[in-house]
């Protein structure tokens, strides 16, 4: 049985023009890993390590220079990422800024369903209400604008927008960073509950190593676009191979 997500030798570089000089910057180089259904893989590394570039490649915001991405054993067509919207969803770091301030939550969710499903109006209404309830929100929250929610509620709204299509994989790009510890704990517990109930897989991009140790099954460490450590989370914490990983773990306390 194939993994839910397989990445083979994914690479991406950028070019910066400074005057007459054109400098090549390697963002990712030959990154490979796999992620099974119902599991969590943490991607860690300092700013500039390639974490966010990897996320953008996986959801089609940018295209890789080389490498292969497979979902459930099928190679992803990088020219048509829209067909994978129902399988893989992305949650941004700042939930508030990722939502349209002029649009009610119910309309946001309605738009997602209308563009990506064949549900009729009543079916969409039922789906929106059930998704909000699953995430601890109320039916009437569909009529709220983003500014009417607290920080924790906004994160739940962002989750609702991602989960409304019943995906198999969520990419959380520093999605819990802006929350205070108590709200973060609530969202983490919710994510774990949803994972156990629905078999969701998570790709967790974060610098919070305590969070990594708490919820991830495996971890991959990036340094200057290259993989320097990968494996079972407990094993990597107990026996890191690369000096860079050792420094990260030591600095996390």
TrEMBL record:
Source species of the chain: Alishewanella maricola
Subcellular location: Cell inner membrane
SMART domains: AAA
GO molecular function: ATP binding
Keyword Kinase found: no
Gene3D superfamilies named in the record: P-loop containing nucleotide triphosphate hydrolases (3.40.50.300)
Name of the molecule in the record: ATP-binding cassette domain-containing protein
Keyword Cell division part of the UniProt annotation: no
Membrane topology of this protein: Peripheral membrane protein
Keywords for the protein's UniProt record, in alphabetical order: ATP-binding, Cell inner membrane, Cell membrane, Membrane, Nucleotide-binding, Transport
Homology family: Belongs to the ABC transporter superfamily.
Segments forming domain ABC transporter: 5-249
């Amino acid at each position: 049985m194939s993994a839910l997500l397989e990445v083979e030798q994914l690479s991406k570089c950028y070019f910066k023009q400074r005057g007459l000089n054109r400098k090549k910057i390697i963002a990712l180089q030959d990154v490979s890993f796999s992620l099974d259904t119902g599991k969590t893989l943490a991607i860690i590394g300092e700013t500039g390590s390639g974490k966010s570039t990897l996320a953008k490649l996986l959801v089609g915001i940018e295209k890789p220079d080389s490498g292969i991405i497979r979902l459930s054993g099928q190679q992803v067509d990088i020219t048509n990422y829209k067909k994978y919207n129902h399988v893989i969803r992305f949650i941004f770091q700042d939930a508030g800024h990722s939502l349209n301030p002029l649009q009610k939550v119910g309309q946001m969710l309605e738009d997602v369903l209308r563009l990506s499903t064949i549900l009729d109006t009543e079916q969409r209404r039922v789906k929106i209400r059930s998704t909000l309830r699953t995430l601890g929100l109320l039916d009437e929250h569909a009529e709220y604008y983003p500014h009417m929610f607290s920080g924790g509620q906004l994160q739940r709204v962002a989750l609702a927008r991602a989960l409304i299509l019943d995906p198999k994989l969520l990419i959380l790009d520093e999605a819990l960073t802006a929350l205070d510890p108590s709200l973060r704990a609530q969202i983490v517990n919710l994510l774990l509950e949803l994972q156990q109930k629905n078999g969701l897989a998570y790709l967790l991009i974060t610098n919070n190593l305590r969070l990594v140790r708490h919820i991830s099954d495996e971890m991959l460490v990036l340094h200057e676009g290259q993989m320097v450590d990968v494996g079972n989370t407990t094993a990597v914490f107990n026996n890191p191979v690369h000096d860079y990983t050792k420094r990260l773990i030591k600095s996390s306390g």
